[in-house]
Predict the structure.
Amino acid sequence: MTYAIALNFEDGVTRFIDCKVGEKVLDAAFRQRINLPMDCSDGVCGTCKCRCETGAYDLGDDYIDDALSADEAEARLVLTCQMVPQSDCVIAVPVPSSACKTGTAQFAATLASITRHADAAVEVSFELDQAPVFLPGQYVNIGVPGSGQTRAYSFSSRPGERRASFLIKQVPGGLMSGWLAQAQPGDAVSMIGPLGSFYLREVARPLLLLAGGTGLAPFLSMLEVLAERQEARAITLIYGVTRDQDLVMVEALHGFAQRLPNLTVVTCVADPQTTHPRQGYVTQHMPGDALHDGDVDVYLCGPPPMVDAVREYFKRQGVSPASFHYEKFTPNAIVTGDAA
């Protein structure tokens, strides 16, 4: 038996290692040629201090307070030289992956299918040479054949499957959009990742998921995992788009609502000429109890103006979510982060 340990470095690179029962994380990482920060390896110096964001573990009592104070331990800071996992874990490592002599993984994929949603978006699936391990919400850089360039897209499929799916915005004149217009099943691409700090953490309170346009993609992956776990806490997903035709994958959301009775799905369209029953932005159609007086974990993925507008809305409401994770995307880049 082994535990899957996700090491999430500060540059957004995530590497997965297996940790044997009773094995310390530092030892497991070294065994798999990832040099986590360390000096003494005896729980004395504190050099290997990281934060365990998800999972159960034992730290023992063989370290000194100068290396890890009681307050730090209470805040789930850990010494990887002492940490023995008792479940799968996600560990935030406060250095770049390059400092640990590791980096992103690269894998090959072939195009399996393309489903077009008018001029709004395309669902694209690829068969991979190996089932990718990632945290639900993360993204990869996909190489655009013949260009020497990559584009970043979030997985919309669940982790661990050989067929990976993505929801990609159609951009007139866009590099990836241009390739997809003539691509055929069987065409080969390369992928690099997983990347990003926007991923589903351990669920400890109600969830508020805010999606803008193709920012819906990472939430589809998260909902797959939540449905598989039969998550019982309240989940509210608000999905906002610019035009009626941009509202895609609604049937998939209804399917998740069937599997997750505690899931509330709200859709809205910003266009003043919309025929949709809810006109406006996500902040205008947020159920009154969705913020749970701040006792809520918020995940937000959309274009930069939407992210900024939601943060300003929370400020005006005087609400500080218990945790707030966001991802801004543009046609060429993804920026992830956390906000108070």
Summary: Helices lie at 25-31, 70-74, 175-182, 217-229, 250-259, 304-317. The mean pLDDT is 91. The domain at 105-195 is CATH 2.40.30.10 (Elongation Factor Tu (Ef-tu); domain 3). The radius of gyration is 21 Å.
